[in-house]
Amino acid sequence: MFKNIYPLFEEKHLLTKEMLENLRDYPRMVTDHLFSDFADGIVSGCKITWDQGELMVGSGMVWRKGKLYFLKEAFRVACGAMDSVRYLKIRFTESRQETGSITESGGIVLEDRRADSESEMELCRFRLQEGAKLRCEYENFEDYSTEFDTVDQIDTPYAAKGKSAMKPELLVQYAREMIKKGSFNPLDLAFAMEILAQDGRISMEGILAYLDGRMEGKDGDKAYGSESGGRRGVYCKLLKILKELDTDAVTRGGMPEEKNRKILLL
After folding, report:
1. Among 81, 109, 175, 247, which is disulfide-ready with 130 (CB 3.0 to 4.6 Å)?
2. Domain count, the chain
3. Of the residues 161, 178, 202, which one is the last residue of a structural domain?
């Protein structure tokens, strides 16, 4: 049967083992049910900011291999200019049993190597030049892929059902630009409105379904496993769609294409 047990701490009453176990197990049961079919990634928070030569990772939660990890306080990482791609990532360690508890943790590291999916999770990557400041804000959707002096979170995984999803803010930016460009394609409008309605938290399955329909089945589903691969491959296809809309707008509003020109004989 369904139950909801609420322990009562009353004066002159002993704490029983069952009461303490209920306090321990209740939040874990909730977590296990909510995230049971989720892929690894950031659940909330973990915002990346730049402050006087340091990267700061804000407090947040990540989901990895069926467990929820918390970062209670912001974490700072010294970050000098090296003019090479560097990766900020979480490195998870083996569980450690201590007196009265089992601890599983993940340390934040900054290295030149890509994240190892078996034991690490990418938070961001960047290429900082000498004398430059690292940007964490973006002017538009394309700006998310700026190579130099910009925090790149295109490949950062976000926890979602099925496969790890993309950064919600990135998808919200896509939706806003899509609406502003005034696409006549009903798929574009439906996808953009869904993104805004879900605050950017769209499953990878939903994104691939959109790409498959939008690109006429050419390579939508292959986007996740292609050589350009993963979230970056998906991002490139979304960017291509936005650029095609710009090209179409120029064609409609400016000079017609050469093949559509007609000569009027008098």
Report:
1. 81
2. 2
3. 161
